[in-house]
Every structure is written in C-alpha cells, then in structure tokens.
Design a protein that fits this description.
The complex is a heterotrimer of chains A (537), B (359) and C (361). By secondary structure, chain A is an alpha/beta fold. Chain A folds into three domains: 2-102 and 183-260, P-loop containing nucleotide triphosphate hydrolases (Rossmann fold, 3-Layer(aba) Sandwich), CATH 3.40.50.300; 267-356 and 442-537, Rossmann fold; 366-441, no CATH class. In chain A, the strands form six sheets. Chain A has a six-stranded mixed sheet with strand order 8-9-10-5-11-12, with helices on both faces. A six-stranded mixed sheet of chain A has the order 18-21-22-15-23-24, with helices on both faces. A four-stranded antiparallel sheet of chain A has the order 4-3-6-7, with helices on one face. The longest helix of chain A is centred in the middle third of the chain and has 16 residues, at 196-211. Chain A is globular, with a radius of gyration of 25 Å. In chain B, a hairpin with a 3-residue loop joins β1 and β2 (90-91). A two-stranded antiparallel ribbon of chain B has the order 1-2. In chain B, 72% of the residues lie in helices and 1% in strands. In chain B, α2 packs across α12 (264-274) and α12 (264-274) runs parallel beside α15 (320-338). With 361 residues, chain C is mainly α. Chain C has helices at 2-26, 32-45, 48-73, 81-98, 104-133, 137-157, 191-208, 210-220, 222-227, 232-259, 270-280, 285-309, 315-328, 330-337, 347-354, and strands spanning 180-181, 188-189. In chain C, β1 (180-181) and β2 (188-189) form a beta hairpin. Classes of the chains: A alpha/beta (537), B mainly alpha (359), C mainly alpha (361). Chains in contact: A-B, A-C, B-C.
Chain lengths: 537, 359, 361
Amino acid sequence: MQPDAESGRDHVVPAAPTSGPEPQVVLEMRGITKRYPGVLANDHIDLELRDGEIHALLGENGAGKSTLMNILYGLVTPDEGEILLNGEPIQIREPSDAIARGISMVHQHFMLVPVFSVADNIQLGQEPMANRVFLDRRAAHERIRALGNAFGFEIDPDAKVETLSVGWQQRVEILKALDRKAEVLVLDEPTAVLTPQETKEIFGVLRRLAAEGHSIIFISHKLYEVMEIADRITVIRRGRVVGTRLPAETNEDDLAELMVGREVELTVDRGESHPTEPALVIRDLRVNDDRGHEAVRGVSLEVRAGEILGIAGVAGNGQNELVQALTGLRRPAAGQVTLGGKDVTGASPRALYDAGLAHVPGDRQEYGLVLSFPIKDNLVLTGYHRSPFRRGFVRDDEAVDAWADKLIGTYDIRTHSGEVAASTLSGGNQQKAVVAREFSRDLKALILDQPTRGLDVGSIEFIHRQAVVKRDQGTAILLVSAELDEVMEISDRIAVMYRGEVVSVVDGRTANREEVGLLMATGRRDVLPETRVMTSE
Amino acid sequence: MEVVFEIPVIGLILQFVAYLVQVMPSLAPIILGISVPIAFGALCGVMNERSGVVNIGIEGMMLMSAFFGFIAAGFTAEVIGEQVIGPFSATVPLLLGVLVALATAMLLSVLHAWLCISVRADQIISGVIINLLAFGLTGYLNRIFISPNPGLGGGTFSSFHPPSWLVDIPLVGWLFSMFLEHGPISMTLIVFVIGLQILLFRSRWGLRTRAVGEHPRAADTLGIDVFRLRYRNVILGGVFAGLAGAYLTLEQVGAFQNGMTVGRGFIALACVIFGRWTPIGAFGAALLFAGTAVFGRAVNITPPTGNLAPLGDFLSSIPQQFYGVLPYVVTIIILAGVVGRSIPPAADGRPYEKEGQAA
Amino acid sequence: MPVLAVFLGLAGGAIVIVISNAASGRGFDLLLPLRAYASMLTGAVTGVDELVRTMSEATPLILAGLSVAVGFKAGLFNIGANGQFLMGALGAGAVGAAVAGWTPWLAIPIALAGGMFFGALYGFIPGALKAWTGAHEVVTTIMLNFIAAALVAFLVTGPLLAPGFSFARTGDVGNAAFPAIGNVAASGHIGILVAFAAVPIIYWLLNRSVLGFEIRMVGANPSAARYAGINPGRLVILTMSLAGMLAGMAGAGQVLGITHFVSASFSTAAGFDAITIALLGRVHPVGVLFAALLFGVMRAGSALMQIQVRVPVEIIDVIQAVILLFLTAEILVRWIFRVRVERAGLEELKTITKTYGQATR
C-alpha cells in the first residue's frame, strides 16, 4: 500500500472487480433509518461501496434513494445507523463534513447559481484567495481551465451559467464535484436531462474516474443505463434494500420486478390509433422567451384527432415556450394556431378551455393545483366558472361536492375526503387529481407537459393508460416530455425539437432510439455532437 | 453656446439642464446631507436583500436608533456635561449617543433576523412589527421622558469646513464641498458606499453573500453556513440603519420628533431596487431623491431666467406642499418604471429550509 | 392562540409601563399596569355612554380591518388603508358639504357613496400599479399615505376651504350627517350598523361567491390562478379597489358620523391598527369583527386611562406591536405556555413576500 502524496491517506491500487484479491470497501452505510411524518423513507438500509467501483442505486421515484444519499452528504440527519469510511465510523452532520472527508455529490436538480459565472460556481466554498479578504480570480480561472483540460473539455470560466445548455451545466456540476478531490462521488440521476450521446460521454468520464481510483455511486431509475454502466446494482424499494446484483447475473425484467415488487409490464399497450382530421394545427409559430430571444422559430405541426403526437427534445430547446404559447400563458410573436378549425392564436387560457383544450402542466404544485385549497376545489380549478359549478355570482357547492366524489372514485385518488387540502395527497395522487380534472370532459385537444415526472411506476402506468383511452375517444393529444422513453412508449408520431424548430417527424412505432437521440442532440441524423468546447447560447 | 439654446424644444431642455448645472452645485452639500439617512437606509437594505432577507422595517430601525441615541446623549450630557473632546465638536454624550443608536438598530436587526431566518415568519410582517414597535415605543417614551424635559439634548456634531482654496478649484471644487462640508457621520457615508461595493463583488464574503441570496441550497451543499451568514449580514446591516438614525438626531438636528423619519426608510427600499441592489447604485438613487426634495427650494432661491423664466414662474407658483411630496411621488414613479426590469436576488424573501427538517 | 397573543401583548405593555415609570423617576410600581388596564376598561364598557363610544371607535376599525383582510386574501398587503381612509373622509366631507341642504334620504347615501368612491379610487391606484408594472403595494401604499395627508392639507386649505371659520376646514355636511345614537357626547352614530352589516357581506363575498373564489386563488397561488384562466392583474385591481372602498367607508363614517367636517390636519391611525386587527382576526371577517371590538375598547378607554393613571395612550401601539409579534412567532407562545399552537402563518402571506420586486405576470 502506498501513501497517497496528495491526501496523505493510504490508497489501495484498485483491482479489477472480477479478478485478484477482494477489493477494499471504501464506504459502508449500516442500518440507515430515516422517518418522516407518515413515511419511512429509509428502513435499515445497508450499502457497501468498493474501491474503484461504479455502484448503481436503482429504485423508482420516491423509493428513498435520494434520501439515503442526502444522509451521506450531510443534508439530512438519520434517525439510526452509522457510516464507515475506510473502515472507521464517521459523523457527517453537514455538507462541509462530507466535503472534508472526500465525499462529493452531483445533485439531481442543479445546484448552480444561474447568474454567477462558471468560475464563481466552481470555486464557491473553497475560493482561492489573494489575501485574507479578496478573491484571486486569476488563480481560480487557471485551476478551472486545467480541470477542464484534464477531462478534455474547453471551459470558459466567465460564461454565465444560465446561458449554458443543460448538458454543459451538467458538466460544470461534475467538475465542481471533482474539484474537491473527491474520493467518493455520488451522482443523483445525472442523465435525466441528457441526450443519449451526452449520456455516453458522461459514462466514459465515469469509467475513467473509476479507473483512476474514485469510487462512484450512481442513482437512477433507468434500467438499461444501470445495466450498462454499473459494476454492481443495489435495488431499493419503499425504503428497503431488496437486493444487490451483478449486471451479468440479471436483466431488465428481473430488475424491474425487484424495483416495483411485482411483475411489471414495462410498456403500455398502446394499440392501433385511428386518427382522423387535424384538430390542433400550428402554423409557423414564433415565440420569444423571457429575455426576448426567439425560443420557438417557425414551428408547424398538425395533431390529428385520435392520435398522440410526442415532442422529443432536450430541455431548453423551446418546448416550454411552445407549450406556453399553445395554452395561453405566453403570447406568440407570430404564426397561427387553430383548434377544431377555430383560430385561437394568442387566446387566453379561459378562452382555450371553453374552446375544448385541456392542459396538464409540467409543474403540478406550482401551476396545476392550489395546495392549500381543498381537493374538491382543486377538482374544479379550471372549470369553476361554468355551470353546474356556478349559478350567477354564487358557487354551487353541492354540484362541486358531487363532482369531486365522482372523480375521486373513478380515478382512485387516495384520500379519505374531498374536504382536506390537496397538500395531503402524495405526488402520484396529486397528478391523478390534475389528470382527473382535465380528462373528464369532452376535449378537442389535450396538452400533456411532463405528465409523469417524479411519479412511481404505478402512477405512470395509470396515466399512460388514461392517455391512450382519451386518444381512442378522439382527442388530439400533444405530449411534451424530457423523458425520451415516455415519448417513445406512447406516441403514435414523434416530432423532435432542436433549437426552437421541429427538425423531424417520425413514426412512433418504427422510430430508432439512436436516431432520435442524434436529432435531439444536433438536429441532424448524420452529425455527431460537438462535446469538447463550451458554448454559450 | 447660446446658439444651441435657440433650437426649439431641444434648446429649452438644454437650457434647463444648464440651469440645473448652474444651480445644483451650490446645493450639492445640502443634497448630500439630505441623502445621508436615505442612503444609509439603502445600504442596510442592500445588506439584507443581497443575503436573501426582505427588510421593510428599516424605517422603524432608523426611528428607534434616532430616539435612543438622542436620549442617551441627552441624559449623559445632563450627568457629565458637554465638554468637547475631539474634532467635529465631539463630546462624550454625542459619542455615547452614536453607540447607543448603533446598538439599538442592531438589536432590532437581531429580532428581524430571528423572525425571518429561524422562525421563518413572513418577512414583510416582521418588518411591520418592527415599524409598529418603533412608532409605538418612541411615541410613548417621548411623552414620558422628553416632553417633561424640553431642554433635553446633547447637541449635535458640527461640520467640517474644507479650506476655501480647495472649494474654489474650478469645475471640481464643488465636489470637495459636497463631500467634505459635513459632520462625521455624513462623511463616512461615501466610505461605506465604496467599501461595501468593493467587498460585495471582490471579496470572499461578498461572493458567498450573493450566493446565499441567489441560491441558498447550492451554497449549503458546498458547505457554506447559510443561517450564520444571513444572521451576520442582517445584524451588520443594522449598523447602517443605526448610523442613519444617529445622523437624524445627533448631526442634523439636536431634537427628536415623533415619526421624524417621514418615510425615508421606505424611500430607501426604492433606492435599493432602483440601484439594482448595489451600494453605488443605491447611493446614486438616494442622491436623486435628495435632489427632488431640494428642487423646490432651488427654484425659489435662484429662479430660472431668460427663456426659462415662464417655467420658473410656473415652478415657483406651485405650493411648497407639492415639492414636499415630490420624493414620495418620484418613489412611486421609479418603482413603477424600474421594478419589472430590475431583477432581485433570486432567493430574496424566501426563508431557507434544510431538507431534513420537519415542516 | 389569538387570545394568548392578546394576553401576551398586554403583558408586554405592562412591562414597558413598569420599566418606563421607574426610569422616569416615579418609582417601581408593579400595580400600575393593572390600574391602567382597569381604567381603560372602565372608560370603555362601564356605562351606556362608554359602550356607545366604544362602538363608535370600533366602527372605522371594523371596516379598515376588513379592508386589510380582503387584501390579504388576495395576497396583497394593503398598508395604505390610512391613505384610503383619508380620501374617503375627504370625499364624504366634500360631497356632504355639497349636498348638505338636500333631504337626508338622499344626502346620506350620496355622501357615503362619495366617500366609498374616493376610497376605491385611492385603492385602485396601487392596484393598477402592481398589476401593470409590478410595483409592490407595500411601498407604493406607504408613499400614497404620505401623499394623501398632503392632499388633504392642500385641498382643505384651498379649493374645499369653507369661509368663516377660525381654522381651515370644509363645510358642514348638514343633512348628510349620520343620525346619532345615544348621548351626543358619546359620538354614537348609525355607522356602526353599516360596519356590522359589512361583516356578513364580506364573508359571503369571499366564501360563497365566484369572485371570492378567484380572489382566494390569486392569493394562494397566483401561477395556478393564471393557469386556471384568471387574469391576476384584473383581480389585483379589483381587490385593491374593494379594499380602498372599505377603508374609504371607514373614513366617511368618521366624518359623517362624528366630526361632520374635515380639517386640514385630519388624520387617523386606523390603517395601522387595521393590520394587527386583520391578523389577529386570522383574516376572517368574524375574527376581524372581534379584534376590532377589542381595539375599540382599548382606544375608547385610553383617554380615561391617560387622565386617571397618566399612562400615555401610545402604549396601545406598543401593545399592538407585541401582539403582532406573538402572532407571528407562535413558537414563542408555545414556549411560554407549553401548549400546541398552530402556525399563525397564512398561505396568502407567502404570496405577498414572493411578489416583492417582481412584476405580476
């Protein structure tokens, strides 16, 4: 064993996982338990991380993976259990403890200050100083450039983070973690916003890091990714470890069953679609973003009654602005939108509702629900202005109650009463409430924005099935999702958005994942993405 | 030069500008003096909001520190007399008064910090509480302590007078007059403005403060103690509010009146927004407000002549009351014109909760 | 919980009384606060005249409290109730003076409507500013308060000046005056009935009507309200105008019921009391009613308290601040009384701070 000159710690030369002596255990979490009111987030979890391995933590949304890692990183204190680093028990009470011990984390939601530069974000917390008070900007720049070069990126330290693409923001996050000389690196759903190509890139970086002696924990809910990158896979379900596997010994179905606890149909049977005439027609639509730049650049699409058109694309390529323009939350700069033949360009949300358009928003808590209102009021949130829910100036409380009872029953929304606040519902049930409300009327068109984000498998299945039912009733459905899998699973046709334009429309059944991924990353079928040089947008 | 003035419309505007340039420099020291409490209040606001805390209680902090500073100076003067011991006619009572003013404001800041950061109460209500407490308590104690003692008081600091050769320098001489013809508290203003500006954008403290005001969770995950930083900044911000209050009763006038802050603590908030949450910007905005407050006087003392004479007559005929409310009107106009375009620190007003804490 | 907060507020006031009394050289008198509060109560409830005066003090407080509460429900902080009060008073005084000779059946409603109109107008201004430019109502309404005082001084000494009086004031409102109730000295008037009637009306408006549903939605979650088809700007303007109207009614009541004219230095503290009243009443119309009655008692009795025990009336402002403190930091109440109290925080309050510095989109 050689003392590591940098850290002063004994450093084992990593052995290949399947040959040679048993590799050292770098990190052990024993009996970790964490209770929240009403929920046992972590139930006596044991986890073992070996030196130089990439260990995947697999589980569906809400299973407790993030909680476990937040405990490791000091953001959350466990109720029971202990953590051992290189064999000795340690106390981690806050992130600075974890950082000091060489544990670094890349979070699911970016922990970057948007208005700060790349340099400021990376140096924050361990700034190189010119003297006791003032920063040494030049030293910070040098260090960051060197860091980027070590991994083959060309970094612009002065670029403002909010101008970077999500792929580059992810890279900045990873560099930030690496800059802290991490021995243990934790990545929480790092590929959620990446294209298939960028995912491959990141995996290459991770393998290199593992070979150089870093030990990595990789949290994900995506089965095929985990199969590809992990050396070992630990599956968590409802706060408990239900098994640890080697990729060679298992497959996606096995893992899915472990994750969910029962046999799972990985795909919803979408059946045949029988589209008729176009219901939602978008012609040459141009929409500006908050800063006045063109986010949607002349998009033309037709969604026919009885079909699901899915929009695939990396987050930030104009999808948000497109959805906002179609749902009355943002005025288009130019172009035309017709619904059932009627011109609804720039119409208000109320007018669109009355014309037969429904919208399931991407952020259910911010837009889709008023959490402090009772569930029954939420179930008429968009329709309260029409009879039977109103009689002139007054609301008809009885009609609202009856309607709420009906929806709660039909959609199996888990609550004991419609009178309690919507905040008491679980994430899945909250989304079910939104879906129940919007699906339960005759619709010409339906816009679904990230409809299953953050939901458990059961809720995802449910919502996908309901969407197919709605389609078969003759509704034109526009699905916008950052989850390529979701788009490919239920769309009859897929449109790819890149830099504000629709670059291609392909058949949903025959689409090739690689091809779509390339289109998402570069807008072309044949060109590989440029991933070396940081570009501001 | 006069030819330019003959151009219709634009010439008139240029004449007006020339008039301002002619009249304002002699008023510059007065303008700075009026801006002192507003600017200090704005610095307090910058410290608070850059860290992510909204503070509308600056008015109350100024009023309380003005009162207690005055009382401390007054009573001390009765006990030990008013012997001058330093420049600016500094006496022990006056110095003690300043210290008490600072302590008062810092104590109120502790309350505000506790309510906003630990209790996570609504931050605007916390400011309202401080204002109510200040108005009530100072009004009440005024009746009890000051009204029966009309002669109470510790006097005021006196102004420094820069030598006349300095002031008479052509073109820039008036700047020396503007910044130096003041008492000690006013003279520290420009130092604090520049100092805070440099520290906020070039020091480690400044970087971390801004990070905490924009994205406290990101700062937290990097090991920065968000709560401690916010507490410290809010309490230090109180120093500025205390200086504003001390200025009012220990440098500007040697007396206290109920509600003597007359809304300047709120105008300070508009300055913060107008100045885009930077010390120098806020200071500039404060000068602007002070300018509007003085404008009425300027027009009466030195009315515009020549082509502008009709304008001068019109402006002189407007009752002084209107000029009195000009700062308030300008505040509204600025808020209306600037707010939509001015982006505050992203976490401004949002209490920070660590993930593991029960709601 | 509000009861505990009031108790603690009185306790806080008591502490201030004792300490300041001692510091001013009049000795350490622990019973002084009790005598002060007793005398306050005496001055407020121990006789018909006293009760009438209490009701009369409470009248504007009920209306102003409703004004602030309605604002809160929409996520708006109406600190401008004072200014709206003044405008309503001025409007009622000016219109009243103009219709002073008409039959009371017409003069009273018209003058009252005048007060309501100008109050609403003065609420419309910050509402429109917020809706169209994002200027936060907290600062704009405070500025407007100062401007209102200046406007009153200007108008009363100028265009509205009534000749022949020894000080600057508007003309007598004559037949537009509210009929009195009880003894003249007690200043009772039918305005109290108006105030009492407003409570169930506002309750009904907020909780049973469609408009009330929209107001509450905008206060609870403005983004969801937009998504749900509501135009938040329109609602902000409507709500602020409504709040202004209520505060204007309070001012109109003062003029039409008690003073019968407006002087150049006409002023009020009702707008600030109203904030504590609205929060003490948990932003609920009935709660506001009770809180306003409590403050009515305090204000009515304070005159006697100042005479008998020589405790200045400003102590009520101190008590108010302490009550508000304990309402906000319910954790303190919990600690002192070892009881479980629910958070006094309201969802709508979060919206107020959230919109500070950002345009309503």
